[in-house]
Amino acid sequence: xxxxxxxLVIGAGDATGGAVAxxxxxxxxxxxxTRRTLEKLQPxxxxxxQSGGVAFGFASDARKEDEVIALIEHxxxxxxxxxxxxFNIGANSPSSILTETARRYTKMWEMACLAGxxxxxxxxxxxxxxxxHNEPPIVGTSQKxxxxxxxxxxxxxxxxxxxxxxxxxxxxxALAQSMARELGxxxxxxxxxxxxxxxxxxxxxxxxxxxxxxxxQGGVLNPDHIADAYWMLHQQPRDAWTHELDLRPYMEKF
Length: 254
Known about the structure:
The chain is α/β, with parallel strands linked by helices and 254 residues long. The chain has one domain (4-246): Rossmann fold. Helix content is 43%, strand content 19%. It has 8 helices and 7 strands, in the order βαβαβαβαβαβαααβ. The chain has a 7-stranded parallel sheet, with helices on both faces. The chain starts with a strand and ends in a 7-residue tail after the last strand.
């Protein structure tokens, strides 16, 4: 196995996930990124390679246990040890509770929470093994690994037409809390972020131009700035870990 230190980004889309991947690549990490289809990852992979970084892309359904296990095993056996995992799947699909279907509701929960559980569990297994095979980290020193779960406004409250999304994101938040309590003593930093606001994406630029116009006033989240915060979380010493970090434009309501 390579001795590369790996940052795995589950759900490396065109905004937050891609920005996080590029940020960690700049810091010398070998970046492994996933989406449902490999073709959609190619622009991101090209950008990282052109900047001198190392990156590998994988087509993977994060809801499928067998695919998740195979992915993590391949990375650990052939690329390097996963030092950081960022779970960044959105699963936002608004719908009235009066017309919501069991199939759609279940799919959102699978994407937002079950997938976080499967990927977090498999990566944590490797991190714990490495942690227990060495001396435990001393308070104030670097940890044995970092797991970051991306949350949203829906992690805190359920709005009209967002029952499915809120249910999945709130469950993901509880998962992260439970993992933090269990894995923290083993030197593994588990963090959950609340991304409370509109992110600068092509989707927002095209379909919500009035909202996008607020960008010049600091009203739209810059994915690169979100990525900076994720890097900061990984750098934190063990005696001052952040578990939950909320990021929002100044004009967003609490």
